[in-house]
Amino acid sequence: MASEYPTRRPDALTMEVVELIGDVVARFYADYEEAAGERALTGAQARLLSLLSLEPLPMRKLAKRLKCEPSNVTGIVDRLEARGLVERRPDPNDRRVKVAAATEEGRRAARDLRESLRFAREPLAALSGEEREALRGLLRRMLGADAGPEADSPA
Amino acid sequence: MASEYPTRRPDALTMEVVELIGDVVARFYADYEEAAGERALTGAQARLLSLLSLEPLPMRKLAKRLKCEPSNVTGIVDRLEARGLVERRPDPNDRRVKVAAATEEGRRAARDLRESLRFAREPLAALSGEEREALRGLLRRMLGADAGPEADSPA
DNA sequence: TCAGTTGTTTCACTACCTGAAACAACCATG
DNA sequence: CATGGTTGTTTCAGGTAGTGAAACAACTGA
């Protein structure tokens, strides 16, 4: 699936774009952490809460989505639960599984967070509507290209 | 300098682009961590080493570049130094400061890492040269828009 | 029934990260 | 040149994130 020539160096234009993407990533990441921090959340907590604000998920699936070990999710959910942002529910179909769900307050916090992403407004504001559409198209193709590792439902 | 109406919700197109950027960020970040991991480096170690592969830097400046506390840098440099990838040198002009510098092996590791970023090749490979140029332009404008916080030299 | 599997947690361990305090070296001023 | 303030680095305590192994309960299939 991967490149046939893993050591071939990309051309200058590609390298420059990679550099720029790296900068954007750094900016976005920093802004995200800061927005989370303003709500006394860590980045990991914010990411988990964002997932749960869409739909409740069992611990196991949370771990898969966050690409980490289930034992790690336990701790993050513990801390969010202690603050009343998340709760654990039993799964009626399988008494082993605990379904983590955002509470009303948790959903509110997640919405707040999403809407406060400064990065969304400021740098993007420099682009016209047409340019944003062009950017959307390019990003979609980048992401679609290597087919996101969606090994989720066929588990 | 920021938006006048911090709570105004962005339009749908903007939100979608933000979503896509988020996805790109997640992909890039994961790939970066993985590439680092393959060389037995953590993400933080890899980022610090990348900086030092360009030029030696005093601890204080490293902290500024990494946007973290100097006390944190101490530990990361400690671990890299223990592995021979980085060394601390005295600053002839100021006996208080320690200048961290990548060793030959450290520079090699950083170059390796940079060239192995899969994200550089695969998703970008889906774009034509023209599209890459367009993307470069858009990213540049996004980053230039809010003037990167370059409070570095006037320190 | 009972062996194997799966979902969650606990535990030990490492790394990251912050803030406060210690310490050395610099610098300015009297 | 003494001395007090500042700056650069480290140490420490404390909390979060992350892994991997082991424990445990509950499910599943033979």
UniProtKB/TrEMBL annotation, chains A, B:
Pfam families: MarR. Residues 14-144 form the HTH marR-type domain. This is MarR family transcriptional regulator. InterPro entries: HTH_MarR-typ, MarR/SlyA-like, Tscrpt_reg_MarR-type_CS, WH-like_DNA-bd_sf, WH_DNA-bd_sf. Keywords: DNA-binding, Transcription, Transcription regulation. SMART domains: HTH_MARR.
